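Slide 14.
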Amino acid sequence: MAESTKIKKSIYLADDDEDDRMLFIEAVLEIDRSINVTEAKDGQQLMDILKLHSPNFPEIIFLDINMPGKGGFECLQEIRNSNTNFKNVNIIMLSTSSSSLSVSRAFELGASFYAVKPSTFDGLKALIKKTLEMDLISVEQNSGKVLMA
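Slide 15: predicted structure.
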């Protein structure tokens, strides 16, 4: 008898802070253990992973804005200007800042959503859960929103 193959949800996370990546993965696992999280320590590593895994792409990319080397805005612009399926992936920009300039720039470059990093683990879980429960197929209707936990 053939084993049933269930497609796992896939999330990519690019964040230079190792502790933030660890907490993010822990939060995702507490929400849904079947979700596969691929992590990148910076923007360049994310872009390398995207090129390596093409044409398989994640449902969501969580992208930290402030990273050394290639930052979140650079990655966002590169992804949105690419000639691949990645240009249609839902991208949630993460930042500790709620600056209107950062929010505006994120949306100008094509972010699906902008999220202020929660200061607590429960807040992070709530943000991730809210994101996963959203109907991302209709992201066009929701695009331009700032997510709060």
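Speaker note: Strands lie at 10-14, 36-40, 60-64, 90-95, 113-116, 145-147.
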